[in-house]
UniProtKB/TrEMBL annotation:
Protein name: Biotin carboxyl carrier protein of acetyl-CoA carboxylase
Protein keywords: Biotin, Fatty acid biosynthesis, Fatty acid metabolism, Lipid biosynthesis, Lipid metabolism
Entry superkingdom: Bacteria
Stretches that traverse the bilayer: none
Organism: Pelagibius litoralis
Length: 146
């Protein structure tokens, strides 16, 4: 495993976000590394993120909740989703588009950082489950690629 270098600026931003929001802890994941910052304990932990499953697992839905559709691409972080590179520009993808692995599907803004979401596989976009400017949660289905 490659050595994980601590991004001190990110840790400081996370700590500032804790102070600003009144939260007790916050966790951020990028490139299979997870950073957790917590108040009170004086602890900042860094750990490799668990490997993502190769195929989506069946999710047991709680009453009133919907299961994640097969082939769904889910949000890797909490943030605001943008379907285009800017106002008035065409969306990165729409229903019926053929996409290739690594192609940008949308952007998620988190902590004032624009994070492009790359397609995990090649296929056809069959559903777009979000709208431009919508807040999203970690693990929320964004679109479906078959």
């Amino acid at each position: 495993m490659a050595k994980f270098e601590v991004n001190e600026e990110l840790v400081r931003k996370l700590a500032d976000l804790l102070q600003e929001t009144g939260l007790n802890e916050i966790e951020y994941e990028i490139n299979n590394h997870r950073i957790r910052v917590a108040k009170g304990a004086g602890a900042v932990s860094y750990a490799p993120a668990p490997a993502a499953p190769c195929a989506p697992a069946a999710v047991a839905a709680a009453p009133g909740a919907e299961a994640v559709p097969a082939g769904a691409v889910t949000a890797p972080m909490v943030g605001t989703v943008y379907v285009a590179s800017g106002p008035g520009t065409p969306p990165f993808v729409k229903v019926g588009d053929q996409v290739s692995e690594g192609q940008t599907l949308l952007i998620i803004e988190a902590m004032k950082v624009m994070n492009p979401l790359a397609s995990p596989r090649a296929g056809t976009v069959t559903q777009v489950l979000i709208s431009d400017g919508q807040p999203v949660e970690y693990g929320e289905p964004l679109l479906v690629i078959e």
